[in-house]
Automatic annotation (TrEMBL):
CDD domains documented for this protein: AmyAc_arch_bac_AmyA (cd11313)
Gene3D superfamilies xref list: Glycosidases (3.20.20.80), Golgi alpha-mannosidase II (2.60.40.1180)
Organism of derivation: Longimonas halophila
Top-level taxonomic group: Bacteria
Record protein name field: Alpha-amylase
Gene Ontology biological process terms, A to Z: carbohydrate metabolic process
PANTHER family reported in the protein's UniProt record: ALPHA-1,4-GLUCAN:MALTOSE-1-PHOSPHATE MALTOSYLTRANSFERASE (PTHR47786), GLYCOSYL HYDROLASE FAMILY 13 CATALYTIC DOMAIN-CONTAINING PROTEIN (PTHR47786:SF2)
Amino acid sequence: MPTRSASLRAFGAVLLLALLLVVGCNTETPPNTPSASTADSASVHDAVIYEMFIPDFSEEGTFRGAMERFDHLEKLGVNTIWLMPIHPIGEERAKTDIGPLGSPYSIRDYYAVNPNYGSEADFRAFVDSAHARDMRVIIDLVANHTAWDHPWLDEHPEWYEDGPINGFTVPVMDGDTTDWTDVVQLDYDNPELRNEMIAMMQYWVREYDIDGYRADVAGLVPQDFWTRAIDSLEAVKDPVFMLAEDESPAMHDAGFDLTYAWPFYGEMVQTWEEGRSLSELVETIESVEDDLPDGALRMRFSTNHDETAWDAPPPALFGGLEGSKTAFVFATTLPGVPLIYNGQELGVQEPIPFFEATPYDWEADSTLMPFYTEYMQVYTESEALRRGTLDILTPNSDDALLYRRVADAEELLIAINVRDAEVRIDLPTDHQGRTWTDVFSGATLTPNGFTLVPYEYRILRAAE
């Protein structure tokens, strides 16, 4: 008769075998475990970012409504969705004179989803659906300030900077008090605030499997906080995708993947609107890029939510629909990562404030939509545009520019006319007589130069 110890050993062996079988059969990702989606592994160099404001992107103004248009994003080659803030908007001191919603950058609860956009389950479905299409999802992180009716003002007033408004203050920028009167400045000298903010950032990655953040006014938050925060996020999900709304190279040292190409954008507008010489813009391109750490990238754009709301959409800034095409091609054929702001591809002509819902009419006839679809296909299929080096051939030109993007397997020649007039520009002699193929028409050319009609752009691929 077996002894009691022998029986226990036999039972243990059976139990262990059963457990191994269960574990071996269970291949599903455990709940609340961040995925390792294809989108996560895509290089930042290959990113195509689409900035989305949920109230505008669909008639419903919801996560579910936005999901119905994911086919559209795929046609544009989008692999990274940047969601403007998804949290409840503050009501106290809200700037409803600008728009009835108030500012989405006035956050009332960092841990909640704006109920007007849908439920937590709806947001989770949005992220899952994007991942199923190999698209990242990053969300806006407003770490510098909160709404006046955020519970922290009552629960943790020590987490805010002292000031003249009932003991609090609105944010200060470059030594001047801002007009952001609907928000309150947080105090990053407080270690408990730092810990809570990092815990919150980890929460959205862990619980909803988001892929990273776009950090609003990142330069107003201490750099050492970002270093620690990004390290902490990578302990939950690696890699995370981090975009800083700032132009400082120090943001890359803190761990951000991308920073804004603000100086380039500002001078590009002046080149189109004020007729400034292109040579000045070339100097900015070269000097700013020289300051970046190796491997660092800029996000390049011809508009974003701020510019479309407070200045004007691209057609109004860049000489109409044709000029806006050329501005976008110019910005995104330089080294960096392209951004499309929702509605940009429709050729919106009037400012669109984000303090109110203005759903886009996606069924309206748009002469720009075919351009964006065709151009973005060229962009996403081009190694030279995504990863190539930049060689400016005519740095002293006033009105048109010739430059090359060169990668191991591809060489492109790009010609840009930034004027509403015909311009002639010649190739340097060592590049004359070479054979190229137009990437759009397929025509074979052997140019010594180009006569470009107003706002014309050309992209040619070197013949093999």
